Amino acid sequence: MQMEERGKIARDAGILLAATNGEMRNEGLKAIAKALEANQDAIIAANQTDMKRSQDENLGAPLLKRLTFDAVKINDVIQGIYSLMELTDPLGATKLSTQLDEGLDLYKVTCPIGVIGVIFESRPDAFVQISTLCLKSGNSVLLKGGREALETNRILAKIIHDATVSVGLPVNWIQNLETREDVTAMLALDQYIDLIIPRGSNSFVKYIMTHSNIPVMGHADGICHIYVHDDADLTQAIDIIVDSKTQYVAACNTLETLLVNENIAQKLLPALKTALDAKNVQLKGDTATQAIIPVEPATEEDWKTEYLDYILSIRIVPDLNTAITHINTYGSGHTDVILTTAEAMAKTFMTLVDSAGVFWNCSTRFSDGFRFGFGAEVGISTSKLHARGPVGLDGLLSYKYKLLGHGQLVADYASGKSQFTHVTQNTNCPI
Amino acid sequence: MQMEERGKIARDAGILLAATNGEMRNEGLKAIAKALEANQDAIIAANQTDMKRSQDENLGAPLLKRLTFDAVKINDVIQGIYSLMELTDPLGATKLSTQLDEGLDLYKVTCPIGVIGVIFESRPDAFVQISTLCLKSGNSVLLKGGREALETNRILAKIIHDATVSVGLPVNWIQNLETREDVTAMLALDQYIDLIIPRGSNSFVKYIMTHSNIPVMGHADGICHIYVHDDADLTQAIDIIVDSKTQYVAACNTLETLLVNENIAQKLLPALKTALDAKNVQLKGDTATQAIIPVEPATEEDWKTEYLDYILSIRIVPDLNTAITHINTYGSGHTDVILTTAEAMAKTFMTLVDSAGVFWNCSTRFSDGFRFGFGAEVGISTSKLHARGPVGLDGLLSYKYKLLGHGQLVADYASGKSQFTHVTQNTNCPI
């Protein structure tokens, strides 16, 4: 089938999915969980085909590990589906209710976005997580996973589709794409697809953004900072810096640049170096840092770099404002932290730093949908439109305005015959 | 100054503006109102220069009328500023508060988007309305008005800038662009500009969307429908159709296509034709319509056309589902109405029609920020991301996550030493 036709049937399915109630979508989720359990052997066999081919192609060990979809991982995604079922139905929630006039009531009600195109890395568990998030939120989804997981994703798509159709959900709400040509064609389907979510490297996300008119939700970079003010608790500061840099070095919420107030640098840096040496973190620093501890020189390029590795760049700054300007100049608007005992300093930092996450006295690594309590995470957005920061089910919602009248005409309000009351109400939309 | 530099200083001003409190921004609004009043003569003189040049260039009468900025219109925008001052400060509102653990509290807090680029039609009143909405919501703004209003916009920009700077607001938060080259350069400044709002024709909005990586908020089309179900009140139906088509024919929320259930067509159409003839509305219809009343034939192209004129296309449909499919196929997702006495029919229509506004028994023309009670309107969005439908101040907001901790590390939660509590709270962010 041509991609244009696939986009159209995805849209048709999305319209029907938007009209299903939460119980029916939960029935679908349950059917998926049961089908994954029942078909576990076939899924593992398909995954072993992918693993064998990838080993033959000399795929690296970390990627092979991500590609693995065994009984343990299958059980994890099944448990994830049961957790998702417990979340409140995100659709049909009244966000605003206003009486415009007697018998003319306006309601702003949540609804699905429509059709979402997701392009993601090789992990087969992501295939299940993304598709079940879309089902819970009533969105059709076109998924393109990594080439390495071809067989695994193919069988997962069939199992998920068939399980949900068997309980009465619309056909074709989930479709599996298998080629790069399909992705290229999908990026042009702005008449059918409402949102593209690319997951992968920065350059990949930027490529998608510049090659489609469809809105894109993704993060372009994660250059996270910690600024240590001169009144910070030293022991706490070292613990937080070590956690932020080393707890999981390849994540987008990992610390990349440390800014240290010049009044505390002499006390902090030697002890910090000892702690980071123990974790094999390579340090780079500006001239002032080099005068205190032995580090490689940091260049302008370092301030703009997301290392995703055991490397940390350090700059000594004279004051809070210089730290804020550094972050707003070189940062990526992801997550930035101030360590200080002064609430006024924290407040200034959190107001002026233009980032999705502004934290006080804790690790950058808390910037995450699960840790934030969103139950499920679509991704982390560094855009300031629609969704910012860790994105839960909310990021997959739009809304519509329902206006319930009794024959009212605008001409009567224009002439002054009728007047708007504009009374805010606390009622849910009755239909 | 080069556009890149202007983008950078706009961003710097936006950072400072985000940190101002609501009282200070209201002081700025008041200063603008007073300065407009004090400089009324100079504004009118500048406008007369624009009017004179435009008359010499044979600008059409409707455009000349829009260009006029006289004492009455100046007073209107001043009153609009006082109304805007009365609205609650949209910034710093806590939208979500969650205790992640004892002493680790997460707050989702509204903040400005940052820098907004607005490209708009010739009306000078729009210059004042847009810039004051941006100030109220703490956003920097780059405005490019119509070439015809060059002198008027130039003096308005200076008055607004100087009045606000005099009360302590940051310099350069508002900048006036005067050339097409500036607009072209602005569309490339995705590192400094967060949102583009184009106001104008469909083709213009689409041009902007395809020529910038910056998110665009605008509506591409307003092809609005009314579906008359077979149980509709006939007199009410005719009144609503006439209001929707003729109350203001050039607006995007005006009715363009009427869908009539076949069971009511024989009764409705002759009486409707009489009512629309009285308003000089030209009718087009499908074959079934032509069999009942004398109308020009409607083609496939008519279903896709936003006339913005005294023209209405009519199609007779066998049932509700055909009407819904027609709307979802040919509509633009703006505003669509069902006329029926049956709540179940209204519910199905309002759930399945994928539009920003889905109305029951009232005019399409209610789709408007002022009529919805939003106090001020940025525009109407047919996108499903960020803002949909009439957009008030809310559409100019983003949010950030503030996390207030006491030294917490992610490693302790990963190891199981600490557990998340994830308790929803009802508290405002204390800083």
TrEMBL record, chains A, B:
It catalyses: L-glutamate 5-semialdehyde + phosphate + NADP(+) = L-glutamyl 5-phosphate + NADPH + H(+). PANTHER family: DELTA-1-PYRROLINE-5-CARBOXYLATE SYNTHASE, GLUTAMATE SEMIALDEHYDE DEHYDROGENASE. It is an enzyme of class 1 (oxidoreductase). It holds the Pfam family Aldedh. Its main location: cytoplasm. It comes from Acetobacterium woodii (strain ATCC 29683 / DSM 1030 / JCM 2381 / KCTC 1655 / WB1). Pathway: Amino-acid biosynthesis; L-proline biosynthesis; L-glutamate 5-semialdehyde from L-glutamate: step 2/2. GO terms for molecular function: glutamate-5-semialdehyde dehydrogenase activity; NADP binding. NCBIfam families: PRK00197.1, proA. It is found in: Cytoplasm. GO terms for cellular component: cytoplasm. This is Gamma-glutamyl phosphate reductase. The keyword Protein biosynthesis does not apply. Its EC number is 1.2.1.41. Belongs to the gamma-glutamyl phosphate reductase family. It comes from the Bacteria. Residues 8-289 form the Aldehyde dehydrogenase domain. GO terms for biological process: L-proline biosynthetic process. Transmembrane segments: none annotated. SUPFAM superfamilies: ALDH-like (SSF53720). Coiled coil: none annotated. Keywords: Amino-acid biosynthesis, Cytoplasm, NADP, Oxidoreductase, Proline biosynthesis.
